[in-house]
Design a protein that fits this description.
- By secondary structure, the chain is α+β, with helices and mostly antiparallel strands.
- It has 2 domains: about 190 residues, no CATH class; about 90 residues, no CATH class.
- About 45% of the residues lie in helices and about 15% in strands.
- The strands form 2 sheets. A 5-stranded mixed β-sheet has the order 1-2-5-6-7. A two-stranded antiparallel ribbon has the order 3-4.
- Strand 1 and strand 2 form a beta hairpin.
- It is globular and about 80 Å long.
- The two termini are about 50 Å apart.
Length: about 325
Amino acid sequence: MSDKKRPMTASDYIKNQPSMQGKNLNSKSAEITHYPNKSEPTQIAYSTCKILRIQSPHDLGFLNLHTTKPFSQPGYHIQGYTYTDYQNAFFRALCLRAFDHSWFLSLDSKCPNQVPGWFHEWWYWFGPTNEIYPTDIIKTNFPFYSKHLPKQDIDSFKQIAFHIDMGIPWICSWHYNLTLLLPGMPYSLVREYRIKWWDKYDLNRCSLTNIAKLFQITSQTKAQVKAVSKSIPLLTPQDLIQRYGTDPNATSATQLIQKYGVDPKASSSQAQQTQQSSSPAHSTTSSKSSKKEELQKMFDAFLQQIEESNIDTTIQDDDPYGGP
């Protein structure tokens, strides 16, 4: 005789809610904050969820979907979680108190644009729809942004990247409803979602000028990094064999080259050349230093442009989003 598992009740869900949110917090994939009601401090007025990254099994160190990984912090009633649990946490962590609870959702600006395929389903249920966007975004800004992206088989990935780069949040809530899904069948209990645009978002952040500036800086950064990387000499395996052969210290020397870009024999030969003629060595060192300084200045300018484009929309310290 086999035991049958009973369906999860409301009390079971409340008990499991911290662990569902904990999977995202444990993997550093999201930041979830609950804001109390000012008139009733014991109740939650609304919650915010900033998605930091959507990780793949390889990113989390899973060998397969059934591998169990322990929590980094104690306090959960389960021993660990699988990658399937990690996916489910994105869907179930937001199922908190229907009808009178809202989620303020956003994607972190440092979130990678490349996301796993299953996140498309999450975006379908919890992500924004075209109906909520202002006219300028849907007709001009987003099409202009999409032209700079490579072709995608799934259009929602462009929309996800747009929200990441432009820092666009949205508001989501859900409720239960009874509806007839099939003719001649009884009513079905379904979950319906509501999506709303955040009126306090500054549309200048996703203007055509800022979009063009973003891709211009990105293109310049890639070109500069590519130019600097080409100027750095690389040692092939044949070069390593010629230099170190089968010497027992060859492994440590190779690791030194890979880690610091320093060749002990080359350093000693450079020292000898320095004694013979200090001017060429000094010019080579100056050239490398100038390239490093140029790369550093380029990154500093890039970060400054990003900071200037991120306009602060904070309303109050205790209520940063002003309520959904």
